Amino acid sequence: MRAEGKQSQITGYSHVGVTVSNLERSAAFYCDLLGLKELRRRVFSEAFVAERNDLYQLEKNMANTVTLCTAEGLELLTLFEWAEQRQAEPVVWNRPGISHIAFKVGDVDAVYERLRAAGANIRTPVRTLPSGIRLMVVHDPDGTLIELAEQD
Fold it and tell me: What is the Cα–Cα distance from 80 to 78, expressed in whole angstroms?
């Protein structure tokens, strides 16, 4: 039963958790190429995960994590590198579940050039939608689709 006066609807954003195959490579992609900052690192020990098996539903596993934020400190992503991982499946737009993660950027052309120069897997170069939004789509190192949009 909820306490009186507490809101029952969503009141804000916390973060998105993304499982990655190589924590350092993915952290470098999001920080060095997309401009996020490292907020904290944690190790989820096997005991920690086992104590929370109702949440993680993973037996005998552990993870190294890094939480990333904007320059202003807004927490956005927590990257998880699990000791035992399942094979990733290619991300497609029309499969049920999360299809992509979208971020606002100040200068999509500059981000595109930085990603291109670094050899990132760009799926869609910068384009302008009829609404005037300029965006691009890139795969992160594990194939997660990342939309980067500049809006006036």
Answer: 6
Tokens of 148: 């980067």
* Span 95-101, average pLDDT: 84
Residue 17 sits in a domain whose CATH number is 3.10.180.10
What is the spatial order of strands in the sheet that 134-139 belongs to? 101-104, 145-150, 134-139, 121-128
Residue with tokens 């890139």: 138
pLDDT in tens, 6-27: 666 877 888 899 999 999 999 9
**Token pair of 25 as six digits:** 């490579």
How many domains, the chain?
2
Report the 10 Å Cβ neighbour count for 70: 14
Does an H or E element contain 112, and which? helix 108-117
Q: pTM score, two decimals?
A: 0.85
Which residue shows structure tokens 């952290």?
Answer: 27
> In a 3-state reduction of DSSP, which class is residue 125?
strand
Structure-token match 């006066």, residue found:
5
Q: Are residues 80 and 96 in the same domain?
A: no
Q: What is the mean pLDDT of residues 77-96?
A: 83
Task: Please check whether residue 5 lies inside any domain of the structure.
Answer: no
Query: Which two tokens mark 1?
Result: 């039963």
